[in-house]
Amino acid sequence: MGFGVVSLLDAAFRRAFTSAGLRPGSAAVDADTTVHFWAHRSLLRPSSTAATSATDQNQPRRPVVVLVHGFGPGPTWQWAAQVGPLSRHFDLVVPTLLFFGASRTRAPARSEASQAAAVAALLTGGRHLPGLGPGSGRRTVHVVGASYGGIVAYHLARALLQHGGGGVAVGKVVVCDSDVTKGAEDDRALAARGGVEEVTELMVPADTKTMRRLTALSFHRPPKYMPECIARDLLRKSLEGRREEKIELIKAMTTAGGSQLTPLPLEVLIIWGEFDQIFPLEKAYKVKEKLGEKATVKVFPNSGHLPSQEEPKLFNRVILEFLLKPSSSNGSATSTLTTAAVK
């Protein structure tokens, strides 16, 4: 398997999660749907158990951050650089979206709203995450999503707001290079940039040649060289034998140019890479218009579509500053960051 490079990376990323205090779990959120996830160990046990009462009962309950991944390899690959810094301040929940990894459903729905509904059921079901269940106190839950995961994050925030009550109070939302206003014209333009007929051919590549095109579009500074054996192994890791289902997810997206979007009554941070070729920078400002006056845009000048991976220190600092600062009623803003900000 690619001289073991991909399997070694997979083990290293899982180790980053366990070192941050996360543990894997699986929940049947309804009769048809099973969601795999990683969660902080404190969320996996009831707060009233004898084991926790002596040490934890007098401790303030930390806010929760939900990290929602996009297409590509699973969440351990996409959030490995974030879980350590974030776990120092928050309890984390990192779901694996349906048709990625071990998460699956027999239900026919494939929209990003159905993805969000499954994650919302995980968070609010009580028995799945006892630390968020009845008797655990009301927790603030922030939602962070990247690319496709950011579109799911928008719907997740709406689902949690509609759920109301229980142990979850929705906090802030971060969407990173996530075009919630995407329409058919955007898909055609992306397909043209990727040199394919249909956008599904690019986003769910069938061969390493197309995967290399996707990588070149995703990164501002793509790898200069990748051996073919490693590329094949990475493609298998990304598809996980679910290519047809992932194509269905893209075809079922309901963004429809943003016509169905309504502003969120929450503070929203919109992060965008200046050189994003998947969702070009101008889309950040269209997203801001749709998400309302509480939305703020921050542009990362040395990044493409994946600033969490290309500029992880800057990304982590920006996320932490946004999530840790007291909520504000001030208006929206737009700014461009510099790498000097992390020094």
TrEMBL record:
A family per Pfam: Abhydrolase_6
Domain AB hydrolase-1: 65-317
UniProt-recorded name of the protein: AB hydrolase-1 domain-containing protein
Upper taxonomic lineage: Eukaryota, Viridiplantae, Streptophyta, Embryophyta, Tracheophyta
Origin: domain of life: Eukaryota
Species the sequence originates in: Urochloa decumbens
Entry coiled-coil feature ranges: none
Membrane spanning stretches: none
